[in-house]
Amino acid sequence: MESIAHPLVSIISEKLIKPSSPTCPTKRWHKLSLIDQAFSNSYIPFSLFYTKDAISKNNTQISQLLEESLSKILSIYYPYAGRLKDNTTVDCNDAGAEFVQVRIDCLISETLNWHNTAIEDLLFPQGLPWSNCTTGGLVVVQLTYFNCGGIAISMCISHKIGDGCSGYNLFRDWSEITSDPNNFSIPSLHYVEQSVFPPPSSGPFLSPLFMSNKHDCVQRRYIFSNEKLLNLLEKILNLKNTVAAESEVQNPTRTEVVSALIFKCAVRAAKAKSGIFQPSSIVQAVDLRALVGLPPNAIGNLLTICPTSITNNEESMTISKLVTEMRKSKELVYKRDNINDNMFVALLLELAKSKQEYHDNGPNEYQITSLVKFALHEIDFGWGKPTKVSIANGLNNKLAILMGNQSGGLDAFVTLTEHDMSVFERDTELLEFASIVPSC
């Protein structure tokens, strides 16, 4: 792990937190599935902010509590305490998770009311979020103390072992065993490994195919309040009632309409640069656990992709029509045999055959990922729910990540190129329904 070097940050300690009990020798080798192998060891980076008012413990008590509980939860999530042996196997050698404590010379308020990426980048070890690293720990935690007494708990979770659902389960269970260790019910995790998506007959992927690309990534945070979401839904339903061609969509969800609005505005921003409307597509990830009969606590990259192509002109990109097309695409996914006929697996096999890497979503493909069903904003370590949840800038520059927020609305973390963002953040249709968090 690269040491932090920044005038605002002082390192207090760096250590490895090992599992509280050794991993059984029969579980020493965690075999990665075909999809696991396709992902680089990029780190999914979340940070949770807690103000001083909610915390009754001093810094020493907080760190000791978090270290002890992390040790306990790693004995259950044992592959995350190991190290990559190669692109096909995790050595569950109990090397441990990396745990860093730092002090940051600013107030927590400087991050709560602003989308201060300059400060929030310091809540993670330098250069780690979304990076393609093969040598470090598979979980890296940073506990940050602000001058005012508030704290941030950040966790970078390896994508190599599991998807966002796997990472959320780890973060949530860590918080639960911290807040109430005596009543914590040990989860019975289902490690899928190669049982669902085994390597192809031609052999395993010897190197990752799906790489992150943090070049020219500018992130902004948008807040969709409950009131604004209702206004957006009402507008769409009113339009639907007056335009027969748009009457197909029924009961659009908040996630659907926000995804459609962001996509529409992003495509419009891209047109401002070229002057030409480019046929584009939304690429969404679909969690396969329920679709293939696996429990929610199944650990692995258990997903497929759901692309929705928009090939008409810009005038046809109404939100209602976009939602309709997204629904049609998902219905096709739901009807598939997602084990033997997985669109993502097919794409990966094609890339492997042509010896290509999947660096980003292509010139006109926008990845929109919903984490709304994962209640990150309710993660409670014993001092209440976080005041704010954030995710680090990066992965690629055509990305939106949706999450629930503390007020019951939605937060959208949108990442575009600098040029496209300069247009996107001034879009009047977007700003009718979303409040941009000021940047500093």
From TrEMBL:
Keywords: Acyltransferase, Transferase. One of its GO terms (molecular function) is acyltransferase activity. Pfam families: Transferase. It comes from the Eukaryota. Gene3D superfamilies: Chloramphenicol acetyltransferase-like domain. InterPro entries: CAT-like_dom_sf. Belongs to the plant acyltransferase family. This is Acyltransferase. It comes from Solanum tuberosum (Potato).
